[in-house]
Specification:
Order of helices and strands: EHEHEHEHEHEEEEEEEEE
Number of helices: 5
Radius of gyration: 18 Å
Strand content: 35-45%
Length: 215
């Protein structure tokens, strides 16, 4: 039986302290640009450091070069973000899961681009998740996924990404059964897991499932 491959991608944005344990437990770690420096500063060796490294100093880049198992530098003028390059490396290894840290922050455009990377992972039948201190985001398409109740992430929202999605949600405060949800509807916002876990079953279309907290 093959060992499951769980990849952690650390991008160049803010990585919350609470993420350390998950990243340390990953079986493979990719640092995208400044994310590689975060790994080294937290005594975690990047299996791959990739990007244009325009967000780090020369001495920091040298440290990344010497500390990573594989170092790949791309030109600053390129058609892909550093995160896209990191996701390419992850997909090539056929992982079971990919969790992305440091991808959300002040810039909304970077957040949208990160959602696009989740969609790419789903298209390769890989479970992907974006994680920060207030959110855990994944995309579910034509399958069912169980989400455990968490004190840290109180809310569970289901947001259609396609024009329509037919969804069942169980184990929550406001359950629905084979409900057709529309892209511009707020029907699935701010639900709460009331049992040990919630089940989200997507029969058609695709949805973003966001577990979140206010503080």
């Amino acid at each position: 039986m093959n060992k499951k491959l769980h990849i952690a991608i650390v991008a160049g944005g803010r990585v919350d302290d609470g993420a350390y344990r998950e990243i340390a437990q990953a079986t493979f770690r990719i640092g995208a640009d400044g994310g590689a420096l975060w790994l080294l500063e937290n005594n975690l060796v990047p299996d791959i450091a990739i990007g244009d490294f325009d967000s780090v100093t020369r001495s920091e880049k040298r440290r990344i070069h010497d500390g990573a198992r594989i170092f790949v530098q791309h030109p600053a003028e390129k058609d892909a973000t550093d995160l896209t390059l990191a996701v390419d490396e992850a997909i090539a290894r056929g992982p079971d899961t990919v969790r992305i840290y440091g991808a959300l922050g002040i810039r909304f455009d970077h957040g949208l681009a990160a959602m696009g990377e989740l969609a790419r992972l789903v298209s390769h039948n890989i479970y992907g998740e974006i994680v920060d201190n207030f959110n855990r985001i994944t995309i579910v398409r034509r399958k069912q996924v169980k989400f455990s109740r968490s004190r840290r992430f109180r809310y569970l929202s289901v947001v259609p990404l396609t024009d329509r999605a037919t969804v069942t949600i169980r184990g929550v405060k406001f359950p629905i059964t084979k409900k057709q949800m529309h892209r511009n509807s707020s029907l699935g916002i701010s639900n709460e897991i009331h049992k040990e876990s919630a089940l989200v079953h997507v029969y058609s279309g695709a949805v973003a499932v966001i577990r979140s907290s206010d503080a």
